[in-house]
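Slack export, channel: ligand-projects

TW: morning all. Re-posting the request from yesterday since it got buried. We need the structure predicted with the small molecule present, not the apo form. The ligand is magnesium ion; the SMILES is in the block with the sequence. No rush, but it would help planning for next week.
GE: picking it up
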Amino acid sequence: MIDTSRNEPLGRREQAILAGVVLPHHDSQADDPLEELRGLVKTAGLKVVGSLLQKRRQIDVATYLGAGKVTELKELAQAHEADVVVFDNDLDPAQTRNLERELNVKVIDRTEVILDIFATHARTHEAHLQVELAQLEYAMPRLKRMWTHLSRYKGGIGLRGPGEKQLEEDRRLVGHRISELKSKLAKIQARKEREVASRALVPKVSLVGYTNAGKSTLMNALTDADVLVEDKLFATLDTRTRRWKLKGGGHVLLSDTVGFIRDLPHSLVASFKATLEEARQADLLLHVVDASSPIAEEQIRAVKQVLAELELDDHPTLLVLNKADRAPDQSYLDVLRAHHADSVITSAAKGMGLDRLEAAVRDALAERSVEAEIEVDLADGRTQSYLARHAEIRDRIYTADRVRIVCRLPRRCADSLRDHGIDVQLGVPALRAS
Ligand SMILES: Nc1nc2c(ncn2[C@@H]2O[C@H](COP(=O)(O)OP(=O)(O)OP(=O)(O)O)[C@@H](O)[C@H]2O)c(=O)[nH]1
Ligand SMILES: [Mg+2]
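GE: finished. pasting the full token output, ligand included:
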């Protein structure tokens, strides 16, 4: 099991130096390329005592940084009595080993920090399983290094998560545990699929977006969810679903989900598929953006990339430009909005723009479902039960051996019935009026 009992490290906080290499194709608009890493490291409970950045045309294969910079980094680490050097770039196991030997302190990369935060924030059984899987997949090719760690250092970042006992097991046992976790998660996912599908009649809306964009705050503002809101990265790791009552009548099911980040470790994306089931089955995604961030566009791109990895990129999506109250000025918001046609400006914290958001959601959902008249054989029980599950049935008109079902249903269901050769006629307002 993962040790998540510890939120705050005991005693003196571990001291970290941040390090990164900026390569020519790096296109970040951020003033400080290490700013996000700084936030991650702080969220993980470390104290940042220094940083070092190198611009290079290409990386040094052995140590990532050039030899001169490695020496500089070593002096920096010594001067600040650092316990750990955190790299913004992904290091392969050999690079980590080489750097540790040169620097004589523990070296970890951004992925390890993210995994560590996930391990500390996991609350539910499912989240624990997912994090454990991601950690083991990350650790697998690095078992040897972690072994060295165990003898050289006791505990600390990079070693939280799969307990020390687990790391003492050999590769085969880790492999065995990985398949066990995968099959447990597959079962959870199958159960969730059924659960979410059984709520078919109520429209489903999912909040997705970069970590810290304000998804949970928006969830709280729209429903009485009372979910945890924190100025920390990855505050939310599991999905909460609440009923959102629309002012104009009716309601939808709104889900809050785990936040994304650029270069999210692939194993984490994969293992969080079960948690993202709500998003997968949503009729509409609300992509929440921190519109006050100077790198809002980059974050939008990163989220789109993760959505694509999850095969959610062709889902109907509405962009929510949140934290408008903190935006540098109106023109910044105008530019963002001009770039993204389907977007709504809000401030979840100040309760601004929520009515506009509701109207936009209502419109988007209305487009997603259609009024239809569907005629089937009375003997066709399969189609009738499909409609009972997926459609809001308004009327059934019987003839000798057929039934005409007047209903409202998701457009994709209507299309799928048509594909199966069922007689579907769209838009029959005359009957509805009666
Ligand atoms: N100024 C301002 N702050 C906001 C707004 N919405 C959220 N925040 C703050 O932003 C921080 C993150 O908010 P959360 O709602 O936890 O963000 P999240 O997207 O759920 O983050 P994760 O769960 O970590 O992915 C908190 O400190 C909120 O108070 C807003 O509209 N304006
Ligand atoms: Mg959240």
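GE: first-pass observations. The first strand starts at residue 2 and ends at 3. Residues 171-197 form the longest helix (27 residues).
TW: perfect, thank you
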